[in-house]
Amino acid sequence: MRLLFLLVCAGLAGCPAAEKAPPPNTRYQAVKAAPTAKAPPDPWCDLEFATGTGAHLVLPPATPARKSVGTLSTGRWVWFNLWATWCKPCLREMPVLLGWRDRLRQDGVALDVWFLSLDEDADELAKFLAAHPDVAPAPSLRASDPADFRAWVKNYTFDGSMPIPIHLLAAPDGRIRCVRNGSLDEGDYPKVAALLR
């Protein structure tokens, strides 16, 4: 009798056994659930905060990767990019991100871009940066300790195990406005420009 119920139930949409799981409610969850599927186009941010509600962005426990760096600016947008030398999508998107910065500045949007490397070996990172001067220009940092980094990033993301690249965008008030996981696409520029207005 149970077998007959299951066979009949499998053909009906209303049976609990035949119901499908609800679709993921964030782009990151969709990508994590089906890595080969194309992420839905909206929303662009995995986490988006209303003005004045996100956590304040502060520098993580880190050391300068290139030269001495200052402090995060207030009164300007800050784009914090988490990357590593072994992350091919990270390396591909860095020139795109710097191009967006320049384009936005030309349009009157005050934007600083910071790079945080998650490479564990400082010497290997230094060699890579010396060989690739166009990658991660200053201000550029290296996370000093994986445990400290994980504690820091959990202040801004919903999942401390999010794969890189990760993008944190802080508004001129210093608060996080948007968190995005995954690589950028050149076609995303209009969404980014609208977000940073």
The helical percent reads: 25-40%
Helix-strand string:
HHEEEHEHEHEEH
Number of helices: 6
Shape: globular
Plain-language structure description:
The chain folds into 2 domains: 1-38, no CATH class; 41-195, Glutaredoxin (3-Layer(aba) Sandwich), CATH 3.40.30.10. With 197 residues, the chain is α/β, with parallel strands linked by helices. A 7-stranded mixed β-sheet has the order 1-7-6-3-4-5-2. The N and C termini lie far apart (63 Å). It is built from 6 helices and 7 strands.
What is shown here, in short?
This protein has 197 residues and is an alpha/beta fold. The chain has 6 helices and 7 strands, in the order ααβββαβαβαββα. Mean pLDDT is 78; it is low at 1-41.
Task: Label this structure with key terms.
7 strands, single chain, disordered N terminus, 197 residues, alpha/beta, 2 domains, Glutaredoxin
